[in-house]
Amino acid sequence: MSFDIRAIRRQFPILSRNIGGQPLCYLDNAATTQKPATVIDALTGFYTKHNANVNRGVHILAEETTVAYDEARKTVATFVGAMSHEIIFTRNATEGINLVARSWGETTLQEGDAVALSIMEHHSNIVPWLQLKERKGIRIEWIGINAEGTFSIADLKKALKKPSVKLVSVTGLSNVLGTRPPLEKIIGLAHAAEAKVLVDAAQLIAHTPMNVRTLDVDFLAFSGHKLYGPMGVGVLVAKEELLRSMPPFFGGGDMIQNVTQDTFTPAELPRKFEAGTPSVADAIGLAAAMKWINDAGMETIAKHEHALIAHAQHVLSAVEGVHILGPANADDRTGCISFTIEGVHPHDLTDILGQQGICLRAGHHCTQPLHRHLKINASTRLSVAAYNTKEEIERCVIAIEKAQRLLNC
Ligand SMILES: Cc1ncc(COP(=O)(O)O)c(C=O)c1O
Fold this sequence. Notes:
This protein has 409 residues and is an alpha/beta fold. It folds into two domains: 5-31 and 297-408, Aspartate Aminotransferase, domain 1, CATH 3.90.1150.10; 41-294, Aspartate Aminotransferase, domain 2, CATH 3.40.640.10. It contains 14 helices and 17 strands.
């Protein structure tokens, strides 16, 4: 399918904004993506026509809301190749990982058991395990990266020789280096060692088709807002037998079958893990985002984004003083490119660019262990989505060179 970038851009109302007299140039997509009109319409459509609480009332609005929420779950299930009851709506990827740590981790892991994490993980996939370490005395086995920022399979093999490793929790795509740990291989090795695997797909989900069944992954967590969907909704996908064996994470309304003064019986899946009123409109918006991606074609989007990243790597490497983090070959990266510039602080750079309507990200990107490993405090990140263009990349790099001259003089 051919990719009509103008038609794509027209579907994102925010892209017509001007900032500082210049068109918005949004290259901070790894933080959150912009939303197509279909997603915004799904949100306003819900609130203007259907709004009611879900699973509770029998009036027409309550029925419509429940049907729409169930339909949204089915769309998500199809998008990732799971069954509907294996889809737990959360607030975001972070909550999904915490749910696994608090429920599966708390009841399955014993003192001395270990969780293997790569050094490139986002804090969302580190802190919940450090908290479990504090509570239960588990250990963390750190998996390193190779010179070009790729996941070290050698380290994983070494870690998995220890029977205490019960879980490998790994990002599907580094939000800094743009490298993709080889998930099939990692899952095969972990399962052979009787360890489970959690994939933090917060970044990967927006850049590649995903099928949890083919991948044979045990847990997969992602956020809607990095996938052209609304903020406030995320998904945990997990194998049915695991979800059945896990106690509920939150208690409250909607997650029970029966409550007495002494005890309660949890509801069937997936409601067992969805206590309280869920973010129904956002789940519907997420389903609309997935439909938008399916219409545009995930493979087509991925090809377009790859061309953008390859171009960004090419032009950025030509800028004096720029050090690119991660692979030298753009074919080994997806979605983002992070870099440092000699004598230029990332926050100063992104501040100057921001005033011209160019949005990049500066800081440690919630990956302090990775930045420490790379012996830097902060970096600047450029990250792309379906609606970005080569012209935007060029405008950004010209602005970087100008800012560099300004800050270095
Ligand atoms: C790799 C990775 N994991 C997890 C997260 C956390 O996502 P959220 O804040 O939506 O829960 C992010 C956000 O940037 C991320 O890049």
